């Protein structure tokens, strides 16, 4: 299970990378493997403001659908349009080309509340993976 | 019982094998307070011959559209069904097959669904169609729900000239609030100006039927244009599917969703069901669409194959967030339509529609020129039209029944202000002689 | 021992059932099409021909139907006959699909539906001209009332899910009429997806209740969740594990005490007909699935029918029309001031109701009870024989269906889906897979009463053989099915880049 150390994580299997006051968000390697082949990603429109933990879209595989949850609050300032034609990027490159949205972080303390890689690993392994 | 292979001896063997004394013991976990202590109070069983005899007598108490001269339409149409349709439907591999979730053993059904979807797209001028809905009325209701989801608006405008029962179903599904009825004009068409005056930013969709309940052909392009200007969706309702053989398809006129009734495509009248809802939309709305979809793909050996797809919209995966709750649809009816449309084909469907138009026109002209009788609406019609009659409509219908003619539908029940109006339908099954006889009796007794 | 095709399958050979017939490829009908061919037969013009553009504005007339097929009659028949040969059907073989009740579809029912007086009856005929049809609707309502113990039955819904929606709308109307705005519906985690979907369509918030470790609803959990905010509890009984909810009376009492209603998903009625009645268990509403319990054909996905039985309190809200009887005369009644309206045009899937009527009249009271008994015996027999080989999460008496999991085989990296696909190689349709959701790797098996002991034994042997293959030669399962005309269609591709219709310009 690939788990970059420089990222933060949520209990719902999203990752977040911070660049200044922007957060890039995607789903983890564990999540993409559990889902199987991703067939579709539904992302929010630019400008939408999210609360921490709010569902911002869904990721679909052939047989399942999962909600995507915002790691922190913030405004959606970018979305990965490539995923429309190539949802498989979520599987092949979950931390790279499979990124999903970028949020403008309002409250830095929400970033501090996220899990680090060790805590996330413990969570996943505790789930009997 | 001839449907149950296992005899008392077979059952005995199985009971012994599982170590249970009697079949009754298998129900020991049902509380005795709820156990039925008697046999069901139902009639004693009938042998096959007795059953058919009994049903035959019952069936003979109904007037048959193919023996009486019938001019009834109003959402259910008497058309000729090619003999081969029923023969093919009775093939056990179609009739007794389950929903095609296991693609490898259901390729025939899946390919037929794919063909059905294609035919509906071709007929309606749309990009994508589903594998069927229960009927036209519920398909329209689902279309309205879909429009609400897409636009995130609540208000739905529906023409009063849409089939009354379809409007009732729409109200049942959507609730009374936020449905607005658009009146019709003296030509029998939807009042576009009224519609435009009552549309706004809260409008999710406008629903207009063509040909409408009065048989009048509506120009959907004006409706679609007005809807789009306000960011609303245009829903075309079609109750006489055959009209698509000759009329400009709603997709070309600007509709976003087409929801209609396919009973005319090879389904018998069958006292109102099972019928066939068809549902088609634009490509970019496909993930918001209700119902099953069959898609083309390749198998592991590179062979063309068909599968149910985009299932994550549906109830078995999405559950409470599904685009609809529909599970079982009208599978065999869609197959009947596929076979029918294939048999009629490009020329036949058009020719049949042409014949309907011609026969209806012949009747319309003759009836409209009877002294005291008028054609209620001046707009163009397909195979149905409304007559304004110079007598009590029930008296007219009663008189016709004495001559073994089913004369049409009195409209007052649905439109209280139309107390002298009859809706008549003429199809390729109505012979000239029957139309002439209808005209002469009315001329003799009511003109 | 491995084998590639069913021809070589010793199991099938021993049964004399190996498949090696002729099966043909068949293109799409559009690909068969040739200009000028036709299959139709229409009457000739006996009225003056008209030119459509003299009657209808030309912008409202179409210019042909591009792409529509042009084929001859023999080609139509051959096309669909070939397509039919690619399908499994009850007429072909065994379908152990849990929760679907794939029983034999009697042919006399088909003959009945084709009686001209029924097939050609227009729904807009006045009452006096369709007494036969109205009588049939009236009588089947009576029969379904008797079978369920309910006071009235609504015949309008076109399918089970449609019936669920109707039932939930009735509950909502009833409560609103009493001035109660309840927002929630309780649904077990084992429920069929249509339950939450139907509730959601009615505007209810779905609250999930967990099943206990015996596979039943936990009455304490129900009591905790059952507040005055809850409109109803939707239950399947027997539940989707095939287990009878023993605490049903207590559950009913809990729900009713808080002013809620108890809804029964009647999909599993094949375990109850003639044995116990949902009304006697405290249910207020039940939808039937006629295409399950009452033998009407599945038709590749319908049409079905989902009549809804109700207690008297819900009667005023019924969809219109209801069918009433005055002396010898049957009539349609549209006068229900508090009706919820209509769920579809006309009265219901009459042709399906007619087939179910025919079935009920053929079996009679003893036949119906016997069918239930044998259905339950057949399921318990399979459960007993496969127990120990396949993991049985709830080891107790089942009713008409039983649920295994793939846990034992998963140890060899073989999963339920592969077991399912391998069963096809043995000549069986797979059981219901991955449902209910509360059992990981679930396989739900419902044999029904119309299968012989030999068929059940063959199925058991096949399942045992597959379990052995899982240990000894799992590769056979990973690549299954081997004998079908297509194998492992790419569902990912189909969902990522959907191709949902034929187009002439596609390569």
Count of spatially separate domains of chain B: 2
- What share of the residues of chain C lie within helices? 25-40%
Question: Strand pairing plus helix content of chain C: what structural class?
Answer: alpha/beta
Largest interface, with Cβ-Cβ < 8 Å? B-C, 202 and 197 residues
Strand content of chain B: 5-15%
**What's the level 1 CATH class of the largest domain in chain B?**
Alpha Beta
**Count of helix runs of chain B:** 14
Low-confidence stretches of chain C: none
Q: Biggest sheet of chain C, strands in spatial order?
A: 1-7-6-5-4-2-3
| Fold-level CATH name of the domain at 125-362 in chain C | Aspartate Aminotransferase, domain 2
CATH superfamily of the domain at 125-362 in chain C: Type I PLP-dependent aspartate aminotransferase-like (Major domain)
Largest sheet of chain C: 7 strands, mixed
Ends apart, CA distance between termini of chain C: 42 Å
Instruction: Tell me the span between the first and last alpha carbons of chain B.
Output: 62 Å
CATH architecture of the domain at 125-362 in chain C: 3-Layer(aba) Sandwich
Give the helix/strand class of chain B.
Answer: alpha/beta
Q: Would you give an account of this structure?
A:
- The complex is a heterotrimer of chains A (129), B (447) and C (507).
- Chain A is an alpha+beta fold.
- Chain A has helices at 29-35, 82-85, 89-92, 108-112, 117-126, and strands at 8-9, 14-19, 22-27, 38-42, 49-50, 55-61, 65-69, 74-79, 101-104.
- In chain B, helix 5 runs parallel beside helix 12 (331-368) and helix 6 (136-151) crosses helix 7 (164-174).
- In chain B, the strands form four sheets. Chain B has a seven-stranded mixed beta sheet with strand order 2-8-7-6-5-3-4, with helices on both faces. A four-stranded antiparallel beta sheet of chain B has the order 11-12-15-14, with helices on one face. Chain B has a two-stranded parallel ribbon with strand order 1-13.
- The model of chain B has no long low-confidence stretch (mean pLDDT 96).
- The longest helix of chain B is centred in the last third of the chain and has 38 residues, at 331-368.
- In chain B, 62% of the residues are buried.
- Chain B has helices at 8-18, 48-59, 83-89, 92-95, 107-124, 136-151, 164-174, 192-197, 220-229, 250-253, 315-318, 331-368, 393-402, 432-446, and strands at 69-70, 128-129, 155-159, 179-182, 203-209, 233-238, 257-261, 277-281, 294-298, 304-308, 374-375, 384-388, 405-406, 409-410, 421-425.
- Chain C has helices at residues 10-15, 29-32, 52-55, 73-84, 107-113, 116-119, 131-148, 160-177, 194-201, 219-225, 248-257, 350-386, 407-410, 416-425, 453-472, 474-478, 491-496, and strands at residues 152-154, 184-188, 205-209, 230-236, 261-265, 285-287, 308-310, 322-326, 329-333, 402-405, 432-433, 442-445.
- In chain C, strands 1-7-6-5-4-2-3 form a seven-stranded mixed beta sheet, with helices on both faces. A three-stranded antiparallel beta sheet of chain C has the order 10-12-11, covered by helices on one side.
- The mean pLDDT of chain C is 94.
- At the B-C interface, helix 1, helix 2, helix 3, helix 4 and helix 5 of B face helix 4, helix 5, helix 6, helix 7 and helix 8 of C.
């Amino acid at each position: 299970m690939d788990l970059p150390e420089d990222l933060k994580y949520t209990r719902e299997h999203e990752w977040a990378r911070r660049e200044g006051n922007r957060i890039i968000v995607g789903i983890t390697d564990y999540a993409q493997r559990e889902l199987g082949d991703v067939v579709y990603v539904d992302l929010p429109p630019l400008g939408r403001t999210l609360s921490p933990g709010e569902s911002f879209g869904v990721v679909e595989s052939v047989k399942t659908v999962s909600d995507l949850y915002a790691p922190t609050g913030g405004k959606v300032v970018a979305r990965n349009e490539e995923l429309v034609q190539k949802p498989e990027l979520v599987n092949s490159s979950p931390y790279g080309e499979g990124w999903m949205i970028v949020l403008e972080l309002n409250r830095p303390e929400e970033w501090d509340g996220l899990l680090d890689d060790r805590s996330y690993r413990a969570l996943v392994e505790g789930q009997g993976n | 019982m001839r449907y149950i292979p296992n005899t008392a001896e077979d059952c005995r063997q199985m009971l012994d094998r599982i170590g249970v004394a009697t079949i009754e013991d298998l129900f020991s976990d049902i509380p005795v307070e709820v156990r039925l202590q008697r046999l069901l109070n139902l009639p004693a069983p009938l042998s096959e011959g007795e059953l058919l005899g009994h049903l035959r007598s019952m069936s003979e108490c109904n007037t048959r559209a193919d023996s009486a001269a019938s001019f009834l339409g109003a959402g259910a149409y008497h058309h000729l069904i090619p003999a081969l349709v029923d023969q093919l439907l009775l093939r056990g591999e179609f009739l007794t097959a389950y929903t095609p979730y296991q693609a490898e053993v259901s390729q025939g059904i899946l390919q037929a669904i794919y063909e059905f979807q294609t035919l509906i797209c071709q007929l309606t001028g749309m990009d994508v169609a589903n594998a069927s809905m229960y009927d036209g009325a519920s398909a329209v209701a689902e279309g309205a729900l879909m429009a609400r989801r897409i636009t995130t608006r609540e208000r739905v405008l529906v023409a009063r000239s849409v089939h009354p029962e379809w409007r009732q179903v729409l109200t049942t599904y959507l609730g009374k609030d936020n449905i607005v009825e658009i009146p019709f004009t003296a030509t029998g068409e939807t009042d576009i100006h009224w519609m435009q005056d009552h549309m706004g930013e809260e409008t999710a969709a406008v629903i207009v039927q063509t040909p409408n309940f009065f048989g009048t052909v509506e120009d959907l392009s004006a409706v679609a244009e007005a809807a789009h200007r306000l960011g609303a969706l245009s829903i075309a309702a079609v109750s006489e599917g055959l009209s698509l053989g000759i009329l400009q398809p709603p997709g070309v006129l600007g509709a976003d969703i087409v929801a209609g009734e396919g009973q005319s495509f090879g389904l018998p009248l069958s006292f109102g069901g099972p019928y066939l809802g068809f549902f088609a939309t634009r490509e970019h709305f496909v993930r918001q669409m209700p119902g099953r979809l069959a898609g083309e793909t390749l198998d592991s050996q590179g062979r063309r194959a068909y599968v149910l797809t985009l299932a994550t919209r549906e109830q078995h995966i999405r559950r409470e967030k599904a685009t609809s709750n529909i599970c079982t649809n009208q599978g065999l009816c869609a197959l009947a339509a596929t076979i029918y449309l294939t048999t009629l084909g490009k020329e036949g469907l058009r020719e049949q529609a042409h014949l309907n138009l011609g026969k209806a026109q012949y009747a319309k002209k003759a009836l409209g020129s009877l002294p005291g009788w008028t054609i209620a609406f001046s707009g163009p019609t397909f195979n149905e039209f409304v007559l304004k009659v110079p007598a009590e409509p029930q008296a007219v219908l009663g008189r016709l029944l004495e001559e073994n003619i089913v004369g049409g539908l009195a409209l007052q029940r649905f439109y209280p202000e139309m107390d002298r109006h009859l809706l008549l339908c003429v199809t390729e099954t109505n012979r000239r002689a029957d139309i002439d006889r209808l005209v002469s009796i009315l001329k003799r007794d009511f003109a | 021992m491995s084998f590639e095709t069913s021809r070589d399958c010793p199991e099938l050979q021993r049964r004399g059932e190996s498949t090696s017939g002729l099966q043909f490829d068949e293109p799409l009908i559009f690909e068969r099409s040739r200009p000028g061919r036709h299959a139709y037969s229409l009457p000739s013009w006996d009225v003056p021909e008209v030119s459509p553009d003299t009657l209808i504005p030309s912008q409202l007339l179409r210019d042909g139907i591009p792409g529509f097929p042009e084929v001859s009659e023999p080609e139509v028949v051959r096309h669909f006959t070939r397509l039919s040969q690619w399908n499994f059907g009850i007429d072909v073989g065994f379908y152990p699909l849990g929760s679907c009740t794939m029983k034999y579809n009697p042919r006399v029912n088909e003959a009945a539906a084709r009686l001209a007086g029924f097939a050609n009856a227009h729904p807009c005929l006045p009452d006096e001209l369709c007494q036969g049809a109205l009588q049939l609707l009236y009588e089947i309502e009576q029969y379904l009332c008797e079978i369920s113990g309910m006071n009235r039955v609504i015949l309008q819904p076109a399918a089970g899910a449609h019936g669920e929606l109707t039932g939930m709308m009735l509950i909502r109307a009833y409560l609103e009429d009493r001035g109660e705005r309840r927002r929630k519906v309780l649904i077990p985690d084992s429920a069929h997806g249509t339950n939450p979907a139907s509730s959601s369509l009615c505007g209810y918030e779905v609250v999930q209740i967990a099943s206990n470790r015996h596979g039943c609803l936990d009455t304490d959990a129900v009591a905790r969740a059952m507040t005055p905010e809850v409109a109803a509890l939707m239950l399947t009984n027997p539940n989707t594990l095939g287990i009878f909810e023993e605490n049903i009376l207590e559950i009913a009492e809990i729900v009713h005490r808080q002013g809620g209603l108890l809804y029964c998903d009647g999909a599993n009625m094949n375990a109850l007909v003639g044995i116990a009645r949902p009304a006697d268990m405290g249910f207020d509403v039940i939808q039937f699935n006629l295409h399950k319990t009452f033998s009407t054909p599945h038709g590749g996905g319908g049409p079905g029918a989902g009549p809804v039985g109700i207690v008297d309190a819900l009667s005023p809200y019924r969809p219109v029309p209801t069918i009433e009887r005055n002396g010898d005369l049957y009539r349609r009644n549209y006068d229900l001031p508090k009706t919820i309206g209509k769920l579809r045009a006309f009265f219901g899937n009459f042709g399906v109701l007619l087939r179910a009527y025919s079935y009920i009249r053929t079996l009679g009271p003893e036949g119906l009870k016997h069918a239930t008994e044998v259905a339950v015996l057949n399921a318990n027999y399979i459960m007993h024989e496969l127990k120990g080989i396949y993991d049985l999460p709830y080891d107790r008496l089942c009713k008409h269906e039983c649920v295994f999991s793939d846990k034992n085989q998963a140890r060899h990296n073989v999963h339920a889906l592969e077991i399912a696909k391998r069963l096809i190689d043995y000549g069986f349709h797979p059981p219901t897979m991955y449902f209910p959701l509360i059992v990981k790797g679930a396989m739900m098996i419902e044999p029904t009463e119309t299968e012989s002991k030999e068929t059940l034994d063959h199925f058991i042997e096949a399942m045992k053989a597959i379990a052995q293959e899982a240990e000894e030669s799992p590769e056979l399962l990973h690549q299954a099915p081997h004998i079908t005309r297509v194998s492992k269609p790419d569902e990912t591709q189909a969902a990522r880049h959907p191709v949902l219709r034929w187009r002439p310009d596609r390569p």
